Amino acid sequence: MNSDGNSLKNDIISEARKRYKACDEHLWESTPDAFIFRRGDNKKWFAVVMNIDGGKLGLESGKRVDILDVKADSEMIALLAGTPGYFPGYHMNKRCWLTVLLDGTVGRENIFSLLEASFGLTAPKRKKGARVREAGK
After folding, report:
1. Which of 74, 91, 105, 128 could form a disulfide with 85 if both were Cys (CB 3.0 to 4.6 A apart)?
2. Which bin fits 85, alpha (ψ -120 to 50), beta or left (φ > 0)?
3. What is the pLDDT of residues 32-73, one digit of tens each?
4. Mind listing the pLDDT tens digit for each residue in 93-105?
5. Strands of 64-71's sheet, edge to edge?
6. Distance (Å) of CA 51 to CA 43, 68, 78
């Protein structure tokens, strides 16, 4: 793990706390360096940070890498997956999640944009009646 990965992880934690009022939750005793962020209103996960063997992404096996998994729409996944620093969701549904390397390949602003999109995609679904009433205003 390089220092840029640590810096990016710290920036993601700060951004999630400040912008989304979400705390990093360490759920697994066996992987204390992995954590999630979830929405406060519906408790859905919108981001997961892990440190995994790069071989699981088709990178150099035996080299540990920090990653961020975010919820993304299928068009975004199709556009980004396979470009440097982006992969179909690791350990998540590959049609709904995107994995981002936290080694500096992907810039902070792009990462924060993906966090924003993921937060939005995990928002509570509004009821049909509420949408009709809003449209009639």
Report:
1. 105
2. left
3. 889 999 999 999 999 999 999 999 999 989 999 999 999 999
4. 677 999 999 999 9
5. 35-38, 45-53, 64-71, 97-101, 86-88
6. 23, 9, 24
